[in-house]
Amino acid sequence: MNESLANARSPFRNIFHRFERRVWIVTVMQFFTTIGFSICMPFLSLYLYQDRGLSMTMVGTILLAGGLCAAISQALGGTLSDRLGRRPILLAAVLVSILLYSGLAVLIGISAPVWAIAVVYISGRSMLITTRPVISAMVADYASKDKLTEAYGILRIGANIGWAAGPAIGGYLATFLPYAWLFGVPVLTCGIVAIIIFFFVRESSHGVNKRIGLRSMLPTADDRAFLVFTMVSLLLFIVTGQMGSTLSIFAVDKVGFSTAQYGLILTLNGLIVIFFQYPMTLALRRLAKFRALILGCLLYGLGYLSLGWTTQFGWALGAMAIITAGEIIYSPVTLSVIGELSPQDQRGRYMGIFGLSETAGMAMGPLLGGVLLDAFPFDLRLVWAPIASIALIAAVGYYWWARRFRS
User: Fold this and answer.
1) Does the structure show a pLDDT above 80 at 337?
2) Which of 64, 117, 133, 183 has CB atoms 3.0–4.6 Å from 352's, for a disulfide?
3) pTM above 0.85, yes or no
């Protein structure tokens, strides 16, 4: 009796047995897709801005176009996974991504026209991100409802091990290798994911006999709780979208950090998630979901606002720690809410539409950040204060959503 009670109070003792083997397999897949992306993509803005001479507004526009196309691709990928099954969509996405990222590495290596690089970048990002709603739907397929938030916490740990290692590796490689080499890494990681899918992944949803069209990609008009939740989340995703493009230019070009230091700032984000995400998901079981969402938004806002006064590397690390505290509270709860709201036979579609909101917001973020950096190059407080205010508006939105829709 005492032993069983101790085990119940210490979920860490049984963490590897607490979830199905299939949850761990998709977590490993998430790791490899993330590390390939995080090694190269944070440095795309630096390449276009420093090496090719584009303005930050133009860089933000390219990233916005990539994000909007990726958002549509997420919605389509999630819907197709409900219709055709999860496994074939995953396998097709990573195989096509291998071809596209190979082309992107070559184009950057030969200094091809920026429009060609932009087109292949947008295509590659759109194809690879198709895996995200499918993997998220698979977690909901595998995990029981009472373990859903924890399961998404595990998934995020896998992603953030890749996010922690990727920028540090990329920042180090960028000190002595051309950027083209960085963009070849996703070719390798996608190849590994393809092998995992082929040999270890079994189908978790055998599809439904429905035709695929634009109407089927959209959530039902009756599900207002889902629609409002998604629209409020879009605001916060605009804030989280500053992590790549805006933060890289701010840190390297405006404050004067090295690319290696910038990589370490992002690595801190990943390390905090790795070590504190699962304990946080356990603690969140005692907190109402809407309160966790509001707290996460407020921490995001505080962290980004503090960047306006950053001049030292240590201060930047402190700001990132605050931002990441918001992330580990906010992110698994949002996916858990979507998992609970979505009908079993429409999980891919719901995850895809929510992913559309996430990717669209994170695409708008760099454009907003780029415009602010161009408009206020000498007072960075005016860059980060508007961004922090959006996080505050999102917190108010979640409070209203909870009052209006939670039972």
Assistant:
1) yes
2) 133
3) no
